[in-house]
Amino acid sequence: MKRKIVVSVLITFIAAANVCLAQTGSFLKLDDLIEEALKNNKDIESAHRQLEAARFRIPQSSALPDPMVGYSIMGPDLETRLGPQEEIYEFEQVIPFPGKLIEKRNTAKAEAEEKEAQLRLAEKEVVLNTAETYYDLYAVNKTLQVTEEIYELLKKFESIAQARYASEQSEQREVAKAQTEVSETLQKIFMLRQQKDTLLALLNSLLNNSVDLQQGNIPDPELPELAFTLDELILKADNNRPELLEAKAALKKEKYANRLAKYENAPDLSVGFQYIRIGEGMTTEPDDGKDAWMIPLKITIPLWQNRIGSGIQESNRNLKSIEAQLKQEENVSQYTIKNAFYRFTSACKIFELYRNALIPQAELAFRSDQAGYEAGKTDILNLLDSEKVYFNAKVAYYQALSDALKNSSLLERATGISLRGGYK
Predict the structure, then answer these.
(1) Do 119 and 44 form a contact (C-beta atoms < 8 A)?
(2) Considering its fold, how many domains does the chain have in total?
(3) Are 363 and 387 in contact (CB under 8 A)?
């Protein structure tokens, strides 16, 4: 008997645990979705491949030009004092002026830094888009939930109006008004469900369809309270915002390219080796028929200044252009951070206003009119007016929370760092 009781208890416990796990598993957690997006998003994969390609260009840039080898067969009339020249084997290596390969390597490194910043930019964009879609989905879910609750209440009010009209306690217009409100609310439900499906599809595209998002249930998020000042956020962005890092890397690359352009005025060196095979001559010299060799040295002459000078001027102009772009990016960065900061703080205040004042007041008025209508002390027009105020306040409440959360993500995107540890 005891054994049966123990088994029954275990079965009940396991079933309850499975239910809890199923409910927990049905929730979409933002951190999990971001992790999946960073792992599977194709824009990030493309940026990562470009970074790998840029890193492979670094050893290429500092390599010497390919050497040349040659072989010549001499004609029968090419005689020397020691005999006829029969064959020539030659080797030649061009060695750029010292400093050219260094600047080429530095330019390639800076380009890799630029690609790395672009990768970080792609990651931050995906994180932002995922978070914004997630919070939009939260707002739509909550709005849909509130709308469905209001729909059930309106159907109840419609039934009361019909009953009163049947007993000649009210006019037909009250029934018509209630039915109109029920139909309009049902239309809102259809539209909200369509918006939910659209947001789930967008979220799926960001995650490359790697997660099952059928339910789309989102736990209630907490409103973060920022612990950093605006000036601190601007300072953090200087070394973390991807756009600034990309602009700085582009400036560094152009500086190296400018130095390389000036090195075009310096000559390159060519070193070779020739081995000449000599046939037997008709002399009695002890070196008769002995092979010969030589080491030819050549340098380039930077003669055509219309090419070199124009290249330097082009590089100077490019450098000035990149400097201007960096300055503009710094201005844009400050504006973006300030805009996100002010929007976040404003959305937090609006959310607090709805939570602490507007929602309680609207609900109190609605519940009062609802009780009055059910008791026959007020008409349905006053009730529906209160219902609309309460409904709009609830929807605005969740929208304000969603806006605050989206602006917190926008602030993270603007600074280039995760601020989750910077919230109280």
Answers:
(1) yes
(2) 1
(3) no
